[in-house]
Amino acid sequence: MPGVLDISLILVALAPFGAAALMPLIHRAFPEWAGAIAALVPAVAFVSLWQALPVVSAGGSLSGSLGWGGLHGLALTFRLDGLSLTFALAIAGIGAFILAYSGKYLHGHRHRGRFLSFMLMFMGAMQGLVLSDNLVALYVFWELTSVTSFLLIGFEGGRMVARVPPRRRLWSPAWAGWHCWAQVSYWSASAAAG
Fold first, then answer.
1. 91 Cβ contact list (under 8 Å, min separation 6)
2. Are strands 3-5 and 75-80 parallel, antiparallel or unpaired?
3. Which residues of 103-128 are buried (b: 16+ CB within 10 A; e: fewer)?
4. Helix (H, G, I), strand (E, B) or coil at 80
5. In this structure, are strands 61-67 and 3-5 parallel, antiparallel, or unpaired?
6. Of 6, 94, 111, 106, which Cα lies nearest the Cα of 53?
7. pLDDT band with cut points at 50, 70 and 90 for residue 31
């Protein structure tokens, strides 16, 4: 069954980044409800992904593309098949619970809005990673996952004990990402030459 273009797939991958940008403002305006409001983003994504279940379970797939490279022809392309649907549903479902819980758990914390913003960015990076349909997008979302996990681990950067683990945590995925990019470059050059 051929792929069907679906704009909601692009929104599932990119909406968490928009919500993350707005979260500090939302937290200031509605401090008691910030976690619940943040949890709406993955909850809506979960419902949207669940609605794709009949198409995917019938052997089909959904795809979406957003051009951003202009002259170079680069595009963020996303594809939803059985495996990516499984992971995307898990990310959205667990993300909704974590955001709702942490909104109440961090009640009164001065950086709760920042934490919710970092969680939304991490969730968006993970969604983009599992939905990516090309190597450039895969690499970009892999690196975003590294950076956002660094931000989450070092959430309380004012404390010295919170500064050391994120620095260690950043090098492992960064090295893996560079290695991946080197391998892709090598195999692309080999294919072009041979």
1. 42, 123, 126, 127, 130
2. unpaired
3. beebeeeebbbbbbbbbbbbbbbbbb
4. strand
5. parallel
6. 6
7. confident
